[in-house]
Amino acid sequence: MKINLRNFRKSKAKLLEIIGSQRNYGKSCLLAKEVLKPVKEIDHEIIELAEKKIELCNLCAKCETGDCVIDDDFNQILEKAQEADGTIFSFPKYFSLSSKFLCFLERLVMIHHCKEYHDFRKTEVKPDQNFLPPFKGKPCCLFIVSGFGKGRRRTSENSRL
């Protein structure tokens, strides 16, 4: 898929930065802030998952016909992602990804799965024609923040996507 960045720069673009760290104002957040300092024409918002309440998916599949029914901050983040013109994900690489970021990704994948495939039990539900995956066709960037030192080589090898 080819993305035309000229269209992205023509108007005041909205960029959403999702920080997947467990820590507030950590290195993942610092990196995301520093990257956009020289760019004045982009309106951006930073969402730190550490400050948000995001519960585990309970696999109820009610999201296939509407928003997720879990009462937390996920639906608000999803709405902002749908409004944004592009997204930056910045997250630390520990032994795995942070649990908050994994929880966010799980919920994101389940909503898409339930709306597109209607769970695996319910075949009579019609597809949601209004559902558009929040990141489809939009520029996206990943920043994986890792420590240095003795584990530098091993960490960089494990971070390959």
What is the C-level CATH assignment? Alpha Beta
CATH 4th-level superfamily? Flavodoxin domain
The largest sheet is: 4 strands, parallel
Q: Which sequence of strands runs across the widest sheet? A: 2-1-3-4
Helix content: 25-40%
- Judged by helices, strands and strand pairing, the structural class is alpha/beta
Based on CA atoms alone, the radius of gyration comes out at 17 Å
Tell how many strands the DSSP assignment holds. Answer: 4
| End-to-end Cα distance | 18 Å
Write up this protein.
- This protein starts with a helix and ends with a helix.
- The chain has a four-stranded parallel sheet with strand order 2-1-3-4, with helices on both faces.
- The relative contact order is 0.20.
- With about 160 residues, it is α/β, with parallel strands linked by helices.
- The radius of gyration is 17 Å and the shape is globular.
- The chain has one domain: Rossmann fold (3-Layer(aba) Sandwich).
- Helix content is about 30%, strand content about 15%.
- The chain has five helices and four strands.
